[in-house]
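Subject: for your reference before the review

Hello V.,

The reviewers asked for a structural picture of the protein, and I figured it would be easier to keep everything in one thread rather than splitting it across files. Below is the amino acid sequence we used in the manuscript, unchanged from the supplementary table.
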Amino acid sequence: MQRKPKPNALTRRERQIMDILYKLERATVGEVLSKLGDKPNYSTVRAQLRVLEEKGHVRHEEQGLRYVYVPCVPREVARRSALRHLVETFFEGSTEKAVAALLGGEGWKISSEELDRLASVIAKGKEES
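And here is what came back from the structure prediction:
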């Protein structure tokens, strides 16, 4: 059974566009297009920005004849939402499985300083629960 996507869930391309907008803070369709690696069609990017606006992720300001797009959702909020979606999708909703995958992966090199900071976060989480 195929799950229906959440209305505010972002596609891969929408996430790429949001990442560009977060980096630039504000951008026109042309500026977004110039940062996309595979160079989609101008009207495709414009349509995707309109969809992002309908979903409430961006807003536009008119500057002359051009629209300048600005993120509406703070990056930290978007980050938490994306992470929650990732954990639900690939780790059966288990934070433990997600963290274990990060810590046990061969491609991940975690320094002892990072491990100390993670231990601190875990200790704080235990205190708060």
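For the response letter, the relevant points are probably these. The chain has two domains: 12-71, 75-128. The chain has six helices and two strands.

Happy to draft the paragraph if you're swamped.

O.
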